[in-house]
Design brief:
- The chain is α+β, with helices and mostly antiparallel strands and 551 residues long.
- The protein has 3 domains: 259 residues, 3-Layer(aba) Sandwich (Rossmann fold), CATH 3.40.50; 99 residues, Beta Barrel (Elongation Factor Tu (Ef-tu), domain 3), CATH 2.40.30.10; 129 residues, Alpha-Beta Plaits.
- It is 28% helix and 28% strand.
- It has an 8-stranded antiparallel sheet with strand order 18-17-23-14-15-22-19-20. The chain has an 8-stranded antiparallel sheet with strand order 27-24-26-25-29-30-28-31.
- Strand 12 and strand 13 form a beta hairpin.
- This is Peptide chain release factor 3.
């Protein structure tokens, strides 16, 4: 008996060691920025240096140049913007990286918010000429709320821009973050020559490589005589003087403060010309936070737990239009995931067998046999998953749900062709499930056309485009004159007791819950004054244990 116990303990220790090694070599991060800061370009260059692609493509491809890997949707290629979040998994050095590429456009901030719920780190991309921009500030607040470590990459140093010290001061004064420059630029604009690593004073000089290829780099030490021959002394001396100033006035690099989101390591470079991308990636892998535990019922779930758990943070329909597929993106939080394993679905209590799990790389996918905490994998979704669902083995785990944003634009979606009614309903339901837009319905049963509710107009345009090109349904919109939505806490019984309410429209969401629409904030405040008994909230409550109404 004693021998059996010792063997069992040895086996458990061996399994835990293997699990620890697997988790420690994984890294998970999202990239956030204002539109046009160069986010998609940086993503492509990281993939290039990671060996995941052989040539990077610009957002607006020319001639034979490749289309970008992360922007796989046809509309993204046409407009040159990221519309949907993408997962890109690749190996670099000894690390397995899960890169979450997010939309920069403010109309898709809800998709970005959901994706950030699956991230352990965030890279905040900033334009060297423009500094902090509105969407960057909004996404930063989401990261702060979720206590995600933030790493700053100041991009486009090969173009005329603001002084580096001024950019650091703006980060500290406006965001309340303490910036710690990991490297420092030598020159800027046409005179951008390279960067100095602040930690060991090593210098990396760059020469422009062929478009889309890795930049030519040379590495020297600060005191190397060759350095003064390669770089103008006025540029080098200015960079060294500014570095000395940072050492005197700046804070020390404290990794606990980095991982708590109080210090942001700062890097300088140019994604378009590949200047500083490799040195950023190397340092980022060294400094970034490893997969962290998540909260379930007030308790932290250890990523090294022997039991598997994960949650769904994104749904996507028609990634492969030929097969009309539906994919659920799952962030693994603990344990070891294995192909064909059976897991418990926390919301429904059902036991589900997860066959054909997929490793994701933009639109491309391949079957994966195992995965660990920090990984994001794709699951076939025949309609059983909803955003925020938890899957687990062992004792019940249910991670915090992901709330919806309060919509500000509302339009009736009309289908003028009765012969496409079935495809129309299917498309609306699938796009609603993946969170492309919220869908509301009139309380009058005779009015069956859905109401699209979105944060921005572009969201609604994307839904129309996808209905036409993915489901073969042409539609038209009838805008509604409402700009504010509020969910009623307590449900329909509260409204029945109150009776008729003026200056607002009552609709129901896809879960059958009452929602009040107001034309403006004044009408909303009027309701609060006249009916203080009605409790309302601006964010759709997270639903557990229910299935949405199929309308």
């Amino acid at each position: 008996m004693a021998s059996t116990t010792v063997t069992s303990e040895f086996t458990l220790e061996k399994e835990r060691k293997e699990l620890l090694e697997a988790v420690q070599c994984r890294l998970n991060f999202a990239i956030i920025s204002h539109p046009d800061a160069g986010k998609t370009t940086l993503t492509e260059k990281l993939l290039l240096y990671g060996g995941a692609i052989q040539q990077a493509g610009a957002v607006k491809a020319r001639g034979e140049q490749r289309k970008v890997t992360s922007d796989w949707m046809e509309l993204e290629k046409q407009r040159g913007i990221s519309i949907t979040s993408t997962v890109l998994q690749f190996d670099y050095s000894s690390s397995k990286i899960n890169l979450l590429d997010t939309p920069g456009h403010q109309d898709f901030s809800e998709d970005t918010y959901r994706t950030l719920s699956a991230a352990d780190n965030a890279v905040m991309l900033e334009d060297a000429a423009k500094g902090l921009e509105p969407q960057t500030r909004k996404l930063f607040e989401v990261c702060r709320m979720r206590k995600i470590p933030i790493f700053t990459f100041i991009n486009k140093m090969d173009r005329p821009g603001r002084e580096p010290l001024e950019l650091l001061d703006e980060i500290e004064s406006e965001l309340g973050l303490i910036p710690w420059a990991v490297n420092w630029p030598i020159g800027s604009g046409d005179e951008f020559r390279g960067v100095i690593d602040r930690r060991d004073r090593s210098v990396t000089l760059f020469e422009k490589g062929e478009r889309g290829r890795q930049a030519e780099e040379s590495h020297l030490q600060e005191g190397d005589p060759e350095l003064s021959k390669r770089v103008e002394l006025r540029l080098l001396n200015k960079a060294l003087e500014e570095l000395d100033l940072l050492e005197i006035a700046g804070a020390e690099l404290n990794m606990d403060l980095v991982h708590s989101g109080e210090i942001t390591p700062v890097f300088f470079g140019s994604a378009m010309t590949n200047f500083g991308v490799r040195s950023f990636l190397d340092a980022f892998l060294e400094l970034a936070q490893k997969p962290m535990g998540r909260i379930s019922s007030g308790e932290l779930v250890d990523p090294l737990s022997s039991e598997f758990s994960g949650f769904i943070f994104k749904l996507q329909a028609n990634m492969d239009p030929r097969h009309r597929d539906r994919v659920a993106f799952m962030r693994i939080c603990s344990g070891r995931f294995e192909k064909n394993m059976s897991v418990r679905h926390a919301r429904t209590g059902k036991l589900i067998r997860l066959s054909r799990p997929q490793k994701l790389f933009g639109q491309e996918r391949e079957v994966v046999d195992e995965a660990y905490a920090g990984d994001v994998i794709g699951l076939n979704n025949p309609g059983m998953f909803a955003i925020g669902d938890t899957l687990y083995t062992g004792s019940k785990i249910e991670y915090e749900g992901i709330p919806c944003f309060s919509p500000e634009i509302f339009s009736h979606l009309r289908n003028p062709n009765p012969s496409t009614f079935k495809s129309f309903n299917k498309g609306v339901n699938e796009l609603r499930e993946e969170g492309a837009v919220q869908v509301l319905y009139d309380t009058d049963p005779s009015k069956r056309d859905p109401i699209l509710a979105a944060v921005g107009q572009l969201q609604i345009e994307v839904v129309q485009y996808r209905l036409e090109h993915e489901y073969g349904v042409q539609t038209y919109l009838e805008p509604l004159g409402y700009t504010v939505a509020r969910w009623v806490i307590g449900g329909w019984s509260i409204l029945e007791k109150t009776g008729r309410i003026f200056n607002c429209k009552t609709v129901r969401d896809s879960w059958g819950r009452p929602v009040l629409l107001f034309k403006n904030e004044w009408n909303l405040n009027q309701l609060k004054e006249e009916h203080p008994e009605i409790e309302i909230c601006s964010v759709a409550p997270v639903v557990s244990g229910l299935d949405p109404i199929r309308s």
